[in-house]
C-alpha cells in the first residue's frame, strides 16, 4: 500500500496528538492529586471542598495545556465557549468514570485486586469520554474564515 506524504503526515499528527493528550492527562492527574492532598492536609479544608477545588484547578490546567499544546495547531472556537465545553465533557467523564467504578466494584467480589480493576476500568472509561469529547467537540478545528 502506498501512502502519500500528506496521508503519512496526517497519521503522524493523529497519533502525536493522542500522545500529547495522554501526557497532559498524566501531568494533570498528578497536579490534581497533589493539590487535593495539599488542600486537604496542608490547609485542612473539608474533604469535598478540597476535592472540588482541586478538580476545578485541574480542569483549567488541562484545558490550557490541551488548547495550546495538544491541539494548538487547530483553529479553535472562542476561549469562553471552549472552556464551557471542557467543563461539560469533564463532568460527563467523571460521571462515567465513577459509574463504571461503582458497577464493576459491586459486580466483582471484594478484594484489593478487584478494587484496582474497578478503578482502572473507570479511569479508562473516563479517558475515552475525555478523548472523544476533546478531539471531536472541545478542540475541534473550525473552518478558516
Description:
By secondary structure, the protein is mainly alpha-helical. 81% of the residues lie in helices and 0% in strands. The chain has helices at 5-42, 47-70, 79-107, 112-138. The longest helix has 38 residues, at 5-42. It is globular, with a radius of gyration of 18 Å.
Total number of helices = 4
End-to-end distance, in Å?
A: 36 Å
Low-confidence stretches: none
User: Gyration radius, to the nearest Å?
Assistant: 18 Å
Q: What's the pLDDT, averaged over the residues?
A: 88
Helix-strand pattern, N to C? HHHH
**Residues in helices, as a percent range:** over 70%
Label the overall shape. globular
Largest sheet: none
Structural class: mainly alpha
Q: What percentage of amino acids are in beta strands?
A: under 5%
Beta strand count: 0
What topology emerges from the helices and strands here?
Elements: H1 5-42, H2 47-70, H3 79-107, H4 112-138
Please describe the structure with a list of short key phrases separated by commas or semicolons.
145 residues, globular, 4 helices, mainly alpha, 0% strand
Briefly summarize what is shown.
The protein has 145 residues and is mostly helical. It is 81% helix and 0% strand.
Amino acid at each position: 500500500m502506498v501512502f502519500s506524504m500528506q496521508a503519512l503526515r496526517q497519521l503522524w499528527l493523529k497519533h502525536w496528538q493522542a500522545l500529547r493528550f495522554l501526557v497532559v492527562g498524566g501531568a494533570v492527574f498528578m497536579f490534581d492529586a497533589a493539590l487535593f492532598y495539599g488542600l486537604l492536609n496542608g490547609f485542612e479544608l473539608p474533604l469535598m471542598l478540597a476535592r472540588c477545588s482541586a478538580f476545578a484547578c485541574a480542569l483549567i490546567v488541562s484545558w490550557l495545556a490541551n488548547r495550546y499544546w495538544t491541539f494548538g495547531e487547530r483553529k479553535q472556537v472562542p476561549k469562553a465557549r471552549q472552556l464551557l465545553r471542557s467543563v461539560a465533557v469533564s463532568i460527563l467523564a467523571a460521571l462515567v468514570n465513577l459509574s463504571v467504578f461503582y458497577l464493576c466494584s459491586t459486580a466483582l467480589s471484594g478484594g484489593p485486586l478487584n478494587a484496582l480493576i474497578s478503578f482502572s476500568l473507570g479511569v479508562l472509561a473516563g479517558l475515552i469520554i475525555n478523548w472523544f469529547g476533546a478531539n471531536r467537540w472541545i478542540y475541534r478545528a473550525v473552518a478558516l474564515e
